[in-house]
Hints:
Elements: H1 4-11, E1 22-26, E2 29-32, E3 37-40, H2 43-46, H3 55-65, H4 80-91, E4 96-99, H5 102-117, E5 121-125, H6 134-138, H7 143-146, E6 156-159, H8 164-168, E7 175-180, H9 196-207, E8 210-214, E9 238-241, E10 252-256, H10 275-288, H11 295-305, E11 312-314, E12 317-321, H12 326-335, E13 338-339, E14 341-343, E15 347-350, H13 358-374
Helix pairs in contact: 3-10, 4-10, 11-13, 12-13
Amino acid sequence: MPTSKQLDAKYYMPAFGRDMEIVRGRDCHVWDSTGKKYLDLVAGIAVCSTGHCHPAVTAAICKQAQTLIHCSNLYYVPGQAELAAKLSKASGLGKVFFGNSGAEANDAAMKLAIRATGRHEFVSFEHDFHGRTVGSLACTHKPAIRVPFEPLGIPCKFGPYGDIEALKDLVTKKTAAVMFEPIQGETGVIIPPDDFLPGIRDICDDTGALMICDEVQTGMGRTGKWFAFQHSAVQPDIISLAKGVASGIPMGAIIAREGLEFTRGEHGSTFAGGPVACAAGNATFDVLKSVVPKVAAKGERFRKGLAHLNPRVRGLMVGFTAGEKSPAIAEYCREHGVLINVAGGENIRIVPPLVINNREIDHAIAIINEAAESV
Length: 375
């Protein structure tokens, strides 16, 4: 009988570099195909916000799957309006539209900006990541993944991340929106200056461009508030989210301010906001209500424990620069039962389940420190 690795090599497009098979997960731990247990500080890249197979989320998924798995958006979908209401109230914005991923959410945000402004140009930032679909890729800076597919048909200019003065020269009366990450995740948890979001808001207000805040990785409590923009005093026009929304069931969404919305026929999706995804999303939200207030303190525990590595911390987004040693550090941690991620720019990224406890945090800190010293 061929192994998964053999079948993968023969039948699956080699778009990913991988050499380990995860077969089971529970809380903040996963097990590979050999039976080895790991403390998971990757969490599906900030996806498994409630941990692996949280009983409340699993029960909600199973219950819904036994009742109705799919229902077209031609009809009211069980749980969809309820989840939209929760996200709207948590964000302080207006109406929601669901998708199936972060890239889809960013595409929807871009479409809504074009529709609302009548403009077709965008501005984003160096090292921002917004997705790999044709629309979202146009606003994703990394040349290695964007340039081979150009022209993408959507003009986008890129400025230095965090530099408001440079942004003033890029945004014009032709700009539909400024799209940005409030914290850059794929680059290794890069936190901008405090005046960054207020500066974007002012520039957008002056030019009539919309402000699109990509909360795909930072949303759903990851930074210690429901959304990262809430650490500032400003409100974007549109936010996109995905990863942590439904604990691993594919789901994305945009939330737009009052008065900014798609009307009938302007956007759609067969699978978006389906019954099972919404059941997972509602259960996830309800679990996180008691978890989010504790996230900031957990982040500070990481900050203190990894202080000599000069970590960048906002809630349970933790990153530090390790240079060319990053892969060796990640490999040492993996060998010792802790999974971490090498992000861009030779940075380590740590985005564990939000339900991680202090004992698990302390164990992670000990292994990461060992790794940093050993390599």
